[in-house]
Amino acid sequence: MTLSAAERALIQAARTARQNAYAPYSGYPVGAAVQTDDGRIFAGCNVENASYGLSICAERVAVCHAVMAGAQRITAVAVCTPDGGTPCGACRQVLLEFAPDPEACAVWIVKPDIVVQRYTLASLIPHGFRLK
Ligand code: THU
Q1: Options 7, 48, 59, 97, the catalytic residue
Q2: Average pLDDT over residues 28-41
Q3: Partners of 69 in the beta sheet?
Q4: Is 20 inside any structural domain?
Q5: Ligand 1 pocket check for 16: Cβ under 6 Å
Q6: Would 129 be classed as within a structural domain?
Q7: What's the gap in Å between 101 CA and the centre of ligand 1?
Q8: Residue 34: pLDDT band by 50, 70, 90 thresholds?
Q9: Domain assignment of residue 88, given as a range
Q10: Number of domains the chain is built from
Q11: What is the β-pairing status of strands 106-110 and 74-80?
């Protein structure tokens, strides 16, 4: 698979973010990065809590970083998991909220050492819920 410089940067951001994951309960560190239509990249890692249900996924941290910075249109995503796992259903819905064109929004699933798969966001959340 030949990757563009932008794709490599996005994937690298997800891998780097994973190094800061706080996942003492699951032992499953995740890093994520979103690219927005202005070319910027925003990263996130999962942040767990002793009250397990309060844990936050890496993808949603990345989305919140983007929105905080005034970037609300996501054009590509990378997620780095230990085993090639894909985003949970809640994160798919949150990504969809900020993806104007889910058919064109690549979701790269990678491990620390290899690229596992390229999906589109549309394929990961068919018939997603939208109010606008
Ligand atoms: N996790 C993510 O960060 N992203 C996902 O899409 C799947 C799950 C986190 C949540 C929790 O901290 C750990 O992985 C195990 O579920």
Answers
A1: 59
A2: 98
A3: none
A4: yes
A5: no
A6: no
A7: 25
A8: very high
A9: 5-124
A10: 1
A11: parallel
CA 1 to ligand 1 center in whole angstroms: 26
Look up residue 85 and give its two tokens. Answer: 């796992």
Statement: residue 1 has pLDDT above 90: no
> Reading across the β-sheet that carries 106-110, which strands appear in turn?
41-45, 31-36, 74-80, 106-110, 115-120
Residue 64 within a domain: yes
Output the six-digit token pair for 109. 């699933």
Is the minimum distance from the CB of 23 to ligand 1 under 6 angstroms?
yes
Q: Does 97 participate in catalysis according to the annotation?
A: no
Domain presence at residue 37: yes
| Cβ of residue 3 lying under 6 Å from some atom of ligand 1 | no
Q: Which pair of tokens denotes residue 11?
A: 């994937």
45-100 tens-digit pLDDT: 999 999 999 999 999 999 999 999 999 999 999 999 999 999 999 999 999 999 99
Indicate which residue's Cα is closest to atom 5 of ligand 1. Answer: 87
Percent of the chain with pLDDT over 90: 99
User: Tell me, what CATH number does 12's domain have?
Assistant: 3.40.140.10
